[in-house]
Write a structure and sequence with these properties.
The protein has one domain: Up-down Bundle (Methane Monooxygenase Hydroxylase, Chain G, domain 1), CATH 1.20.58. The longest helix has 34 residues. Helices cover 86% and strands 0% of the residues. It is an all-alpha fold. Keywords: Magnesium, Metal-binding, Phosphotransferase system, Sugar transport, Transferase, Transport. It comes from Isobaculum melis. This is PTS system, cellobiose-specific IIA component.
Length: 109
């Protein structure tokens, strides 16, 4: 059985990586405002990598439970999942907005 300390560590890692992904997205928007499209794209890649890492931590817990291991309930883990899903939704919207910003910038030139 996974102990409470282990699930807290996983939850904190998820929150950390998801939060860093949000920071990368916000930095990407700042770069877009200054027409630094390549740097903004790099921030999107960074955000995707960080979200993938957060998702990997969640997947480890889900796989353990699916294999029959008892996982203790943790409000912090629920919060971590919520945080990750919220930022993942923000990432999906950001991909679309980044494309739109670049398209508008080309049309304005």
């Amino acid at each position: 059985m996974m102990d409470k300390d282990e699930i807290v560590q996983v939850a904190m890692a998820m929150i950390l990586h998801a939060g860093d992904a949000r920071t990368a997205l916000m930095e990407g928007y700042d770069l877009l405002e200054n027409d630094q499209f390549e740097a903004a794209d790099a921030k999107m890649v960074e955000a995707q990598d960080l979200l993938n890492q957060a998702h990997g931590y969640q997947t480890k817990i889900v796989q353990k439970e699916a294999a029959g291991e008892e996982i203790p309930y943790s409000p912090l883990f629920s919060h971590a999942q919520d945080t990750m899903m919220t930022i993942q939704a923000q990432f999906i919207l950001s991909k679309k907005l980044f494309r739109m910003f670049k398209k508008i910038a080309k049309e304005v030139e």
